[in-house]
UniProtKB/TrEMBL annotation:
Pfam families: TnpV
Name of the protein in question: TnpV protein
Organism superkingdom: Bacteria
InterPro entries membership: TnpV
Length: 125
C-alpha cells in the first residue's frame, strides 16, 4: 500500500496510518492566527448568544481573522482607556513612588473600569 494517495474526486491527499488513510489537512495562516484573551471572550459570546453568526464564520473560514481583529481593537482600547483614566485621576509615577499601595488600588480600579467598558463596547456587542 502506498504511504500517500491522491483522491481526484475531492482533491485531497491521504496518508496511510496503520490500516487507514487519513486526509492530510493543513490550516491556512488565517486559521492559525492567535486570537488572544479578548478574542476568546468574544468567541465564547458568539457561541452562546450569536450561534448562527459563529457557525457561518466558522464554515467560511473567517472566524479566526475576525477574532484576531477584535482582540487587537479591544487591546488598543483597553490600554488607551487606562492611560486616559490614570491621567484624569492624577495617578502618576510620583504617586507610585510615594504611596505604592494607594497607586495599586487606584490602578486596579481603573483597569476594572476599562475592562468593563471594553466588554460592553466590543466583546459583548
Amino acid at each position: 500500500m502506498d504511504k500517500y494517495i491522491f483522491d481526484e474526486i475531492n482533491g485531497l491527499w491521504y496518508e496511510l496510518q496503520e490500516d487507514y488513510y487519513i486526509p492530510c489537512l493543513i490550516l491556512s495562516e488565517e486559521e492559525t492566527q492567535p486570537i488572544g484573551l479578548w478574542g476568546q471572550h468574544h468567541k465564547q459570546y458568539l457561541k452562546e448568544h450569536r450561534h448562527i453568526v459563529y457557525t457561518t464564520m466558522l464554515i467560511e473560514g473567517t472566524l479566526n481573522r475576525y477574532l484576531a481583529d477584535i482582540n487587537q481593537q479591544a487591546e488598543q482600547m483597553f490600554h488607551r482607556l487606562i492611560e486616559e483614566m490614570a491621567q484624569k485621576q492624577g495617578v502618576t509615577e510620583q504617586l507610585k513612588a510615594k504611596q505604592p499601595m494607594e497607586w495599586i488600588g487606584l490602578m486596579n480600579n481603573i483597569q476594572a473600569c476599562a475592562r468593563e467598558i471594553v466588554n460592553n463596547e466590543i466583546i459583548f456587542s
